[in-house]
Design brief:
The longest helix is centred in the N-terminal third of the chain and has 32 residues, at 215-246. The chain has a 7-stranded parallel sheet, with helices on both faces. Strands 15-20-19-16-18-17 form a 6-stranded parallel sheet, with helices on both faces. It has a 5-stranded mixed barrel with strand order 2-3-4-6-5. The protein is of the alpha/beta class and 736 residues long. It folds into 4 domains: 1-43 and 173-185, no CATH class; 48-152, Nucleic acid-binding proteins (OB fold (Dihydrolipoamide Acetyltransferase, E2P)); 259-458, P-loop containing nucleotide triphosphate hydrolases (Rossmann fold, 3-Layer(aba) Sandwich); 468-651, Rossmann fold (3-Layer(aba) Sandwich). The chain is globular, with a radius of gyration of 30 Å. Helix content is 36%, strand content 19%. A hairpin with a 5-residue loop joins strand 3 and strand 4 (97-103).
């Protein structure tokens, strides 16, 4: 008999299972026996207790244990064929459910009645639906818990991630066979490490995670696999940090009489305590001979750009260049205007009237004309421009920098890891890197917890920021409230203020710039169908408002398909107060700073993510005037989309909202390029739930590498770490 190992094909443990083709072909991604053993259940159902189903959700796939109240069969005709319908009514520790089983002949119906006797306990799985006020399971499958099919089940029945043509007990039967036959399963923990970290051996943990008889067994198994995953990832990250520190970087030493000193002397206000403290940390790190890799988090308007500018000036003082990478032309232009204005004649180095210690600030975007683009690139490559601000255009191969010393990435979640790497690769020596975000998205939170970046937080409330009131306008319940929304807009304009109206789309076309990528997902990561109703679009909404409720007001539009000059002209007119209401896509999400704008109306707000909503409302209340944000939505109460809006309305704390976002959308691909969503590289870990485990694993990883840098004493652990490092996802992380 051929030995079964983790590398054996999964078909080796099918035996005579009648669904083996489905098991092999249904897209679960299980190729080997090892894949099967690591296909862990997502939850468990206690076979000895009636299921608690507090609030059934229509359309949800549900597995329940219930007591049979009644079981009745009756014949019916389908076409010319006589068939039988058996209705089983179940009592749970919640509402009653009924399931309907169909039989082509009487004997099978009689067998159903014999199996599901009143008083018997049974398990069923199916999709929840409601019919005439009663709960049902559609397309049900199940069996009595005192019957032969239940013989191999554990007391805590695992519920596996599945496809439509398989049942959770199909997976468990094959897993049970695999656990009985497999040999040679590697354990990343040696006996000494198992004792040191108080974790189970791998085979015991596999048996208990797939077939636990009590919650304590399950807890011990989960503890082992969560710590294993955290430790492997922390070892990868610890090695990366060590390798990053070993890279040679040019020290950019602070000068006492240079450009930075001149800038500080001219500042018309005092730096906040946080700006001074974080600025000193960054200044010290820039003086080191290995690259800085720091994440700067802070609320909208908290002064992150000023901190970054002072770091850029230190690098210019030391003879280097600094590049600021922005995700949109609107933001790049805003940065160029604001930085040039803050520097004054210090931004006119080498020009008539410029300060002697000054430099030049150059903007490079994809829409610039050929002559302007060539002039900008010449000033960049010669080093005349100490500060370079740009969009993705900076990443092009033909863009060369004289001496790139610092890369600043604004709104870092808008860039993939590969894109950031394309810019840092332009430096002769590894540059220092500072990434900034106003609201950490899930991937940022995950990377922060895992320690891939050193982190600074500007936690002080921004000076001059007024409170922002946020309200949900629930059109599903109160459709007439939209009239009051436009009345409120008129009232603000009559006070001399300005208003944003934000839409998820430009026009009736799908898939265009400006449309949110927010998806609602079920617990298995499948997309919930979007609404059939057309989403609000800038062009249609603007026409309707200008001809209807906002007639007579000065309205304009802004979106990503407009020519750059038209976008810039529109933004300048809005900033100058020549436009009362700006109907826009999310191009105004970051970088737009109009102090007279007090109100924002977000149409179809449920189509935006938590971070996006928080960023957008940060556009109002910037001039000391109270802000108002209205989240207009057709989402029904209790839906994930509505919960997301309620969470945003409940707090203006961006860091708290990042945790809400993480809970709803999970971590994203911590080691790869995915920004968020259910395609997470994490299998058993959840960043919020397992923070203590992750911290413990980080400490353990540092200790192990200090004792045994090559992990020679734990070869299976070393192989697991090497496998992650060899993966494409780890390659993305290395570039970042």
């Amino acid at each position: 008999m051929v030995a079964i190992t983790p590398d054996s094909p999964i078909a080796a443990v099918f035996g005579n299972h009648h669904k083996k083709r489905k098991l092999a072909e249904e897209g679960l991604g299980l190729v080997t026996v090892g894949d099967l053993l690591r296909h862990f259940p997502r939850r468990y159902v206690a076979a000895t207790e009636l299921s608690e189903v507090a609030t059934p959700v229509v359309g949800e796939q549900l597995t329940i244990v219930g007591e049979v109240r009644s079981c009745d069969s009756a014949p019916f005709f389908s076409g010319n064929r006589r068939q039988f319908r058996t209705t089983v009514r179940l009592r749970t520790d919640g509402p009653d459910f009924s399931v309907t089983l169909f039989s082509p002949y009487a004997a099978l119906a009689e067998r159903h009645e014999g199996e599901f006797r009143p008083g018997a306990r049974a398990v069923f799985t199916g999709k929840v639906k409601q019919f005439r006020g009663s709960w049902q399971l559609e397309q049900p499958h199940g069996f009595a818990l005192d019957g032969p099919e239940a013989a191999t089940l554990s007391k805590l029945m695992p519920v596996y991630p599945l496809t439509a043509k398989l049942y959770t007990w199909d997976i468990q039967k094959v897993v049970t066979t695999a656990l009985d036959l497999v040999t040679g399963v590697p354990d990343v923990f040696t006996p000494e490490l198992r004792e040191r970290f108080d974790v189970l051996g791998v085979m015991q943990a596999l048996r208990w995670i797939h077939a636990p008889d009590e919650w304590a067994q399950l807890g011990a198994a989960q503890k082992r696999f969560r710590f294993e995953e955290a430790l492997v990832l922390q070892l990868v990250l610890a090695r990366r940090r060590a390798a990053h520190r070993a890279l040679g970087a040019r020290a950019r030493v602070r000068r006492e009489d240079g450009l930075l000193a001149a800038f500080d002397e001219r500042l018309p206000f005092e730096l906040t305590g946080g700006q001074r403290e974080i600025g000193d940390v960054i200044a010290e790190e820039l003086c080191r001979d290995h690259p800085m890799n720091r994440l700067l988090q802070g609320e909208v308007g908290s002064g992150k750009t000023l901190v970054a500018l002072r770091a850029m000036l230190q690098v210019v003082d030391a003879g280097g260049q600094a590049a600021l990478l922005a995700p949109t032309e609107v933001l790049a232009q805003q940065h160029h205007r604001s930085i040039t204005a803050m520097l004054g004649d210090l931004a006119q180095g080498g020009m008539l009237g410029g300060a002697a210690e000054g430099t030049q600030v150059v903007l490079l975007t994809g829409s610039m004309g050929r002559a302007a683009r060539q002039e900008a690139m010449l000033r960049i490559v010669t080093g005349e421009a100490g500060i370079v601000i740009g969009t993705h255009a900076l990443l092009e191969d033909k863009v060369e920098l004289a001496d790139l010393g610092l890369v600043v990435v604004d709104e870092q979640h808008r860039f993939g890891v590969e894109q950031r790497a394309a810019l840092t690769d332009k430096a002769g020596a590894p540059p220092h890197v500072l990434v900034m975000t106003a609201t950490p998205i899930p991937r940022t939170v995950a990377m922060t917890v895992f320690g891939d970046l050193e982190t600074s937080v500007l936690s002080e409330l921004p000076a001059g920021r007024a409170p922002i009131q946020t309200n949900v306008v629930p059109l599903a319940d109160q459709p007439a409230w939209i009239e009051r929304v436009w009345q409120r807009v008129r009232e603000e304009v009559e006070k001399g203020h300005q208003v944003y109206v934000v839409c998820p789309r430009i026009s009736g076309d799908a898939g265009e710039e400006g449309e949110s990528d927010q998806l609602d997902l079920d617990e298995d990561g499948r997309e919930v169908a979007p609404p059939k109703r057309s989403l609000a679009a800038v062009e249609e909404v603007h026409a309707e408002l200008a001809a209807g409720p906002l007639a007579g007001l000065r309205t304009s539009i802004l979106h990503g398909r407009m020519q750059p000059d038209d976008k810039d002209r529109t933004m300048r007119a809005f900033a100058a107060g020549d436009v009362d209401v700006l109907v826009s896509t999310t191009v105004i999400e970051v970088g737009v700073d109009v102090h007279n704008a007090t109100t924002m109306v977000l149409l179809d707000a449920d189509r935006f993510g938590v971070s996006q909503l928080h960023q957008l409302r940060g556009r109002v209340g910037r001039g000391g005037l109270p802000g108002l944000c209205l989240l207009v939505s057709h989402a029904e109460a209790g839906s994930p989309a509505r919960d997301r809006l309620d969470a945003v309305a409940a707090t203006t704390d961006g860091f708290e909202l990042s945790r809400v976002d993480l809970e709803q959308r999970r971590e994203g691909d911590v080691l790869g390029a995915n920004q968020s969503g259910f395609r997470s590289s994490l299998v058993t870990l959840r960043v919020l739930r397992d923070e203590k485990t992750i911290v413990r694993a980080r400490e353990a990883a540092e200790a192990l590498l200090s004792e045994d840098p090559e992990l020679d004493q734990a070869p299976a652990l070393a192989e697991a770490v090497d496998e992650v490092e060899r993966s494409a996802a780890s390659g993305f992380m290395e570039k970042g």
